[in-house]
Amino acid sequence: MAHPGPHPGMMQLVLELRQNGVADPIITAMERVPREMFVAQAFQERAFENAALPIGHHQTISQPLVVAQMTEALALNDRCKVLEIGTGSGYQSAVLAPLCRRLYTIERHKALQDEALARLQALRIHNVTTRCGDGSKGWPEQAPFDRIIVTAAAVDIPPVLVDQLAVGGIMVVPIGDEQHDQRLVKVVKLADGDTEITDLGWVRFVPFVPDDGHA
Questions:
Q1: In sequence order, what are the residues at sequence separation of 6 or more whose Cβ sits closer than 8 angstroms to the Cβ of residue 172?
Q2: Range of 81's domain?
Q3: Rounded distance, CA 42 to CA 158, Å?
């Protein structure tokens, strides 16, 4: 039986992303990722809605528009070494990987890490290294990173991650607590170690899982 081709819901999603000002390079990267692969069977019909969906372990696959906005804010190129905090389903990883040189991604929940890795391998994405662990500590052995993306809400900009960001590097992170919507901020590390912060608007993410959290 022939492969059915792109999901019909993708065209509607692409239109919605364009209407929200997402640029073509990001849309092209997202068109290449079959989002239905990253969504639980129970939510297949909603795979191309512009909405966050549960993936288990109290985690979600992010809203496509937020994935697009965060990816765009990173200003990636093929020389970038990127750190992702919160692999989740692996969807954001699959969007990022073709746009950078190397992606390192950390997931707190082993089951999610294993599932994400299997999906990335099935898509023949080979420039991603995964680790199960506490994302708030970053990945010091691989620092510095040209870009860091955080897909869980932090109470404040994590200083440990700023330390692991290269000079001139960009970090995109949602800031705020679990009870309210958060602000998405873009952090640029300056030559003197200080940071330049740009507010990118309201978002809603699950919170960082602390080191003593349950996987």
A1: 70, 73, 74, 148, 149, 150, 184, 185, 186, 187, 200
A2: 65-203
A3: 35
Q: Is 172:184 a contact under the CB 8 Å cutoff?
A: yes
> pLDDT tens across 56-87, in order?
888 899 999 999 999 999 999 999 999 999 99
**CATH classification at residue 165:** 3.40.50.150
**For residue 176, is it left (φ>0), alpha (ψ between -120 and 50) or beta?**
left
Write the pLDDT tens digit of every residue in 131-149: 999 999 999 999 999 999 9
For residues 67 and 126, give the distance between their C-alpha atoms in angstroms, rounded to a whole number.
21
Q: Going by C-beta distance under 8 Å and a sequence separation of 6 or more, which residues neighbour residue 149?
A: 70, 71, 74, 82, 83, 84, 85, 92, 96, 171, 172, 173
Number of domains the chain contains: 1
Among residues 62, 89, 93, 136, the one annotated as catalytic is 62
Q: Under a CB-based contact definition with an 8 Å cutoff, are residues 62 and 132 in contact?
A: no
Q: pTM of this prediction? A: 0.92
136 is catalytic: no
